[in-house]
């Protein structure tokens, strides 16, 4: 089941309650076409992995503080967290990539960012020029510097290079 986050406190509680399960955060907006397109696949995957993953939907228009925390600037953005650490992310409406990324991290043998180069976040979807990509919606907001999520240095570097996080 996909859980719709109501507030920052609600989000923090859901993350705490997830324990050792994979947390998938879907940053979306009601006006975002690609977000609507991928939503049924996300629901399907949430049901498929219900015993090993928690799927949270964060409406960027209603939860700006969480959106800023992860420096989300394009939609949909998916952030994957395992045991309190951001292990992967991607931007765009790519249901195959969503399924493969969830499958990669729901297993009990997940290194969560401490593996081979094959475990590096996929950087196929650059944020530059996101407005011209039919699979991505850009958020028109001025974001401020904020607390960064706890992530391995290589994940943070990739997120900064792609504009998902500011350094």
Automatic annotation (TrEMBL):
Biased composition (Acidic residues): 144-167
GO cellular component, one term: Y chromosome
Bias-annotated ranges (Polar residues): 123-138
Keyword entries, A-Z: Disulfide bond, Electron transport, Redox-active center, Transport
Region (Disordered): 113-167
Pfam families hit by this protein: Thioredoxin (PF00085)
NCBIfam families: thioredoxin
UniProt-recorded name of the protein: GL14330
Organism: Drosophila persimilis (Fruit fly)
